[in-house]
Design brief:
The chain contains eleven helices and twelve strands. It has 392 residues and is an alpha/beta fold. It binds adenosine-5'-triphosphate and magnesium ion. Adenosine-5'-triphosphate binds next to loops.
């Protein structure tokens, strides 16, 4: 069998991105040769440190290389709003005693996170975030029952088209009051392709569950839940809902169970009975909220992977940020990145390779001997990575 060769871009970015991306690379290099895969790598630059050095948060060369050379990539983390020194006057925020998150007062002139630009320039229209609990002796699960679900978030439109305007409120005679408006744009094209991806994911998960011999006790396996608010937003969310329904009624999705749920009741049920769900597909804003909510149900940001998917390249990305509080200590949990390698491989149509990684990660967490401090352990990033490799 001829080896399939794949080229992977490595974009560590900032903070712990530089500690977890090498772990992801090592995992790829350690995949069993019996899979018949060969990998080559190219190091690429992006993020805040890159901005300081080069003046660009996402250099053209990075985008060009990803487009022309790479089948996949791993993206570490970038600072959203760089943490300025506390004596910096632009960092003063009277009501905020916590470390700055993304308040406008911490913006650095000319810098904006490259993630949005990267998604645009590479047509990465779906953000896929699997959230899975593995019961651990060192780390209590936030949910009573283990969860295993995926949020599939549309990534190009909805309120994120960022078409906003502010104008004087005509009902106010003083002329001081204002009105702000934002456009929520939903297209049938984007709704169709995101629902189609969700359907493919549900089919693949069902197949992988059955192939791995996992007990498929949940009636949920192979289920897609379409999330919307069409009872209020009958045109925008109405279009999302009807198009998603249509896409998921294609004959090759016959084996799937399709449900829909209004987003507010979705949140309620997600918190009460998260084990019910398999694949959830949502427009951009609801997907954003549901993704972070679901990540919280797993318990540590260090565990949750994601993939950015579109027409070409697939980019795996841990869902955590640059974590400046633990940067440089060698204790960042590499599992979010290692699982992101798995999700990337799944989308490259290499589910067997992904499964090797998932099983090794699950076994590492379940044993709980070599885990990082966020999971109640004392192991380093490197020790966890090596333990997972040993299990592969
Ligand atoms: P950014 O602005 O880059 O998002 P942040 O300060 O919001 O940075 P996050 O990366 O979002 O930090 O992390 C939030 C919290 O979760 C931090 O306390 C961080 O230490 C913890 N955390 C995030 N990722 C990991 C990881 N891989 N391993 C262990 N802890 C993590
Ligand atoms: Mg953050």
């Amino acid at each position: 069998m001829a080896a399939r060769s794949l080229r992977i871009g490595l974009i560590p970015g900032d903070g712990i991105g530089r500690e977890v991306i090498p772990a992801g690379k090592k995992i790829i290099e350690s995949l069993p040769s019996s899979l018949g895969l060969s990998f080559s790598f190219v190091d690429l630059d992006a993020g805040f440190d890159c901005f300081k050095r080069t003046g660009a948060a996402l250099p053209d060369k990075t985008v060009e290389t990803l487009k022309k050379e790479c089948d996949g990539a791993l993206f570490g983390a970038v600072r959203y709003a760089p943490h300025l020194p506390s004596n910096d006057p632009s960092n003063h925020h009277p009501t905020n005693t916590n470390p700055p998150q993304s308040s406008p007062s911490t913006k650095v002139a000319g810098y904006s996170s490259p993630i949005v630009a990267m998604r645009k320039s590479l047509s990465l229209y779906a953000n896929v975030r699997p959230c899975k609990t593995v019961l651990s002796p060192t780390f209590p699960s936030p949910t009573k029952t283990p969860i295993d679900l995926v949020i599939v978030r549309e990534n190009t439109e909805d309120l994120y088209v960022k078409e906003e305007k502010t104008y004087p409120d005509p009902s106010d005679p003083t002329g001081k009051a204002q009105i702000a408006e934002a456009i929520k744009r939903i297209s049938s094209k984007a709704s169709w392709r995101i629902a189609d991806i969700a359907g493919q994911i549900a089919l693949r998960r069902d197949k992988m569950r059955k192939a791995s011999g996992a007990e498929v006790s949940h009636t949920k396996s192979g289920m897609v839940t379409i999330t919307h608010k069409s009872n209020v937003l009958s045109q925008t969310d109405g279009l999302f809902r009807s198009t998603a329904r249509e896409a998921l009624s294609q004959p090759h999705f016959n084996a799937l169970k399709i449900e829909e749920q209004i987003v507010d009741s979705m949140v309620y049920k997600l918190f009460l009975q998260p084990e019910y769900y398999d694949v959830i597909v949502a427009p951009n804003l609801y997907g954003d909220l549901l993704s972070d909510g679901s990540a919280a149900l797993v318990g540590s940001l260090g565990l949750v992977p994601s993939a950015n998917v579109g027409e070409g390249i697939i980019i795996g990305e841990p869902c955590h940020g640059s974590a400046p509080d633990i940067e440089g200590k060698g204790i960042a949990n590499p599992i979010a990145t290692i699982r992101s390698v798995g999700v990337m491989l799944e989308f490259m149509d290499l589910p067997e390779a992904a499964e090797v990684i998932y099983k090794a990660v699950d076994a590492n967490i379940a044993e709980g001997r070599l885990v990082t401090p966020d999971l109640g352990g004392r192991a380093t990033t490197e020790e966890v990575t090596n333990d997972i490799i040993r299990r592969m």
